[in-house]
Amino acid sequence: MAEPGPGYLHFAAAVDEAWFEQLTNEVLVYRMVQGRRVRSYKPRASGVRTEALDCMVYAYAAFLGRGGPLVLSHRKIQPAASGEAVEAPAPPPEPEPLAVKPVVRRQAVPRRGGGWVNSWR
Question: What is the pTM (predicted TM-score) of this model?
Answer without folding.
Answer: 0.47
